[in-house]
Amino acid sequence: MTFLRSSHYFKALHLWSVLLSSLVLSAQNDHQPYFRNYSTDDGLPSPEVHDILQDRQGYLWIATDNGVSRFDGYRFHNYGAKQGLMNNVVFFLEEDSHGRVWMQTMSGNMYYYDQDSIHTYAHNDIFGQYRYFLPNGFMIPEGKWHYFSLIHLGILRVDSTGRHDFLNRNTSSMLVLLEKPELKRSLFSIVGNATLQQFGFPVNTSPTNHQLAVFSDSLNGVHDVYLKPGTTRSSGFSEGQHQLFDFRKELVIYQNYELVSRFPIPSKAAEIDRIDSTFWVGLNNKEGVWAFPSVSDLHQGRYQRYLKGNSISAVYRDNLGGHWFGTLEDGLRYAPNLDLRVIRPEILSPNENILCLQRGSDGQLLLGTDAGQIYALDTTGNFQKLQKIEGGVYDLRYTTNDRTLWVTGQPLQMIRGGKRKPVPYADALSRAELVSSKRILPSADSSRIYCLSSIGLEVVDRSAEQVVFSTLGTTYQTSFLDAFEDSGGRIWIGSTRGLLEFSEDQLRPVVHREPFFQLRIEAINELADGTLVMGSKGGGIALWKDAQVTILDDKAGLTSNMIESIIIDDEQQIWVATLNGLNVVRRDSVTREWSIRQVTMSHGLPSNEIHDLCHIGNWLYIATGNGLVRFPLKQKITRYAPAPFFETILVNGQPVDQDQLGRLKYNEGNIQLHFICLNYKFRENIPYRYKLNADAAWSYTRDRSVNYAALTPGNYTFELQAQNEDGAWSESLIAEFSISRPFWQRLWFRLGAVAFLLFGGIYYWYRVRLTRLRKEALTEKQINELHRSALQAQMNPHFIFNCLNSIQSFIASGDKTSAMHYLARFAKLVRATLNASTQASISLEEEVQVLKNYIELEKLRFHDRFEYTIEIDPELDPFEISLPPLLVQPFVENAINHGFNFTDPTRIGDLRIRYQKAGGYLRVSIRDNGLGIDRSQQHQANATSIHQLMGMSITQKRLSLQGAPAGDHLQVEELKDEANNTAGTEVVIRIKI
């Protein structure tokens, strides 16, 4: 909005001078946008700001008297002498076509920022020649020359070799203007005659004829201009058609170098610029900045003043439409939205909060505060105090037919003609106390006023001006929060018990299966199609029509589920107030889907704490925790969202370039991605979402880094988006990275490993097979050797000698029958033994026959001094069971020769041999009643005994070769009688069958 300077602070009030007879204070409302302040407390190097620039990446650069600072919305990165900026007072900034940010210092020296470093201009030595002339701007265009404005001297140009001269060397014009339309920039200098003469320039000899010399690369023209006498310093600006100059506190305006108008300004202009259609003039001496919205406003001197109380040295609009203002004493000021205005009337005390808003007559806005004050804001911007009541004003309504203002409080009051009157109870209610209320609803037919309070509902008869119905003392004595009469005449009541309907002086709960209806209902309104809109504490809002109920909460996009107020504008937009921001709910006319747009401090609200709403005409008035806001109802939604970019990428803690991510090693799976989005409307609170690979779900964060601690080998696509203040998501930032597999996971290695394992397996099988064959051959050899040894062991030489002697004795005595019998058995034994030595195994039947022959021969030799039995288990088939030959014989021989070595010649030995089946083994028991192990071993010292021991040892080895478990193939036990005397020996052998 623009205002005439002559009437900016003085506007008449109306209506309430007629409505109320006692009007006390009057003050002009100051409509200002909400300005966010950045100071040294936020990291700015100095409160004295001289210039502002946004580079092509989106970073904001600030020139101060203590160096330059780069701002990213989160922090200020400051550059000074340590970073190479040797002259700290920086006046002007510019970015060249290569993205380098140039800085002009008070000394005239130039520096530029490139690749995160400050560099010195190669020709700074030139400026030393003109160190007494303050710099007034510069240009670094693409081409041969660089241009530098010096106050009182003109415009200096320098080429890449250091050759330099002045554009105005050959002109006597006191005003010099360089225009570069392709850069949308201009340079201006005012030159003094003394300086011109000192440097040999032509001198202007006329005290009244002043000229403006206009250059591009060369002189374009000279124009006669008005110059206020005594002007020695000036600010100038040109954008092709219009030229603006500050001549001794006078703003002089030219169009195509023809004087259009001039008018006084309160102080010297520190900044003159044009942004789109608006001309900006920043003033010194804390006079703020003037904004001329159009050429017409400029010509006629109509402007809006901002930031009165600050000296404005720079005005800049960023790429998202936010406006930045540099001050000489208070750092930076930032306005996200100039269309949004914060109203801070002087008559409103600093700690006074606006609780309620209501439309008055003729477009006025009525306000109630927690201090009990009632104010009116008229259409001309005047702010007026109307009344003061006890306690806070939580609601008020103006009824036009009787010109009455109804005000909540203790008690409920009506104000008419400047007189206040409390509303009493009707006599029929028999209540003496006055009515108390916090919300008011006039009925559609104007016959009633519904008053809601924390203890009940009361109905005021407007004609009688008294309460005719009350729930006090009834079962519905509860806290009532809002009331609404819909288009069908039904009265809906919001309470702590949920939604109620008031009909025929009865309150009835609304019974609905949707749990929302039992929540605390804080606000009620209605769309034109009859949809009832309800706001709750904790459940968001509900839209109810017929049988359909739609719930919208924070998951759907609301700033909070705790609703304070709801209004509906003429466009059927639902405005929902919460203590965490404002929401606009719309329904798409085609898809019929509901959408939610948030309006918060990022849009320019001074606070997200919203108490009440009211719309008048094209404006929405918002009562916030930090003042009254006037907000245009028809706000353009910003679809563009700036895309984020990477600041740093770390792999295993080391920084890498993004293009290196495509060739990572298998052990480089720790990846940290640090990113940023340059959206200054948010204050360090930008929403981001990201995912790894396209089919993954989005993850949401407000942090500026994502860490993947241990990614496995493979190909990945990282996708990141940033959200703007209107909920739109940016284009995706994509990073593709590939982590190679370790060599042992690659195909060539796997094929090689398979081949190696295959050939290794074959070789291993060959070696195992060869070893087994060798072992089998060795075992076979050992068995054969043991067979031969067994044969030798079975045929005891002493036994043979004794047998032959016995045969000879029978022959000598003439006992031919015995001799022939003995000889036949001996021959049979020798033949069986020889046959067994050639076979790997014999049948059990053959084994028993060999034993019988042997025992019978021994029995003859020992003159029948022992008896024997051989028992075979019936389960055993002696013809089917096979076993190694001559395994049992050595133990039988040992029992006969040593077990029966009795001192008593009358004692008869008893030998028992038994064959049994035990699992997969043949169990053979050789049992005698001889001397026992200990005594028999005492007699085993002769050659015969040694031979017998050798035979038993060989038999043990043969048993072990049959695979019997260690310690289980042979067991020897000395037998005891009941008196614990030796009763013989039992040998048990186990043969695998």
UniProtKB/TrEMBL annotation:
<feature type="signal peptide">
    <location>
        <begin position="1"/>
        <end position="27"/>
    </location>
</feature>
<dbReference type="Pfam" id="PF07495">
    <property type="entry name" value="Y_Y_Y"/>
</dbReference>
<dbReference type="InterPro" id="IPR011110">
    <property type="entry name" value="Reg_prop"/>
</dbReference>
<dbReference type="InterPro" id="IPR015943">
    <property type="entry name" value="WD40/YVTN_repeat-like_dom_sf"/>
</dbReference>
<dbReference type="InterPro" id="IPR036890">
    <property type="entry name" value="HATPase_C_sf"/>
</dbReference>
<keyword id="KW-0812">Transmembrane</keyword>
<feature type="transmembrane region" description="Helical">
    <location>
        <begin position="747"/>
        <end position="766"/>
    </location>
</feature>
<dbReference type="GO" id="GO:0000155">
    <property type="term" value="F:phosphorelay sensor kinase activity"/>
</dbReference>
<keyword id="KW-1133">Transmembrane helix</keyword>
<dbReference type="Pfam" id="PF07494">
    <property type="entry name" value="Reg_prop"/>
</dbReference>
<dbReference type="InterPro" id="IPR013783">
    <property type="entry name" value="Ig-like_fold"/>
</dbReference>
<protein>
    <recommendedName>
        <fullName>Signal transduction histidine kinase internal region domain-containing protein</fullName>
    </recommendedName>
</protein>
<dbReference type="GO" id="GO:0016020">
    <property type="term" value="C:membrane"/>
</dbReference>
<dbReference type="Pfam" id="PF06580">
    <property type="entry name" value="His_kinase"/>
</dbReference>
<dbReference type="InterPro" id="IPR011047">
    <property type="entry name" value="Quinoprotein_ADH-like_sf"/>
</dbReference>
<dbReference type="InterPro" id="IPR010559">
    <property type="entry name" value="Sig_transdc_His_kin_internal"/>
</dbReference>
<dbReference type="InterPro" id="IPR050640">
    <property type="entry name" value="Bact_2-comp_sensor_kinase"/>
</dbReference>
<keyword id="KW-0472">Membrane</keyword>
<dbReference type="InterPro" id="IPR011123">
    <property type="entry name" value="Y_Y_Y"/>
</dbReference>
<feature type="domain" description="Two component regulator three Y">
    <location>
        <begin position="679"/>
        <end position="737"/>
    </location>
</feature>
<keyword id="KW-0732">Signal</keyword>
<feature type="domain" description="Signal transduction histidine kinase internal region">
    <location>
        <begin position="789"/>
        <end position="866"/>
    </location>
</feature>
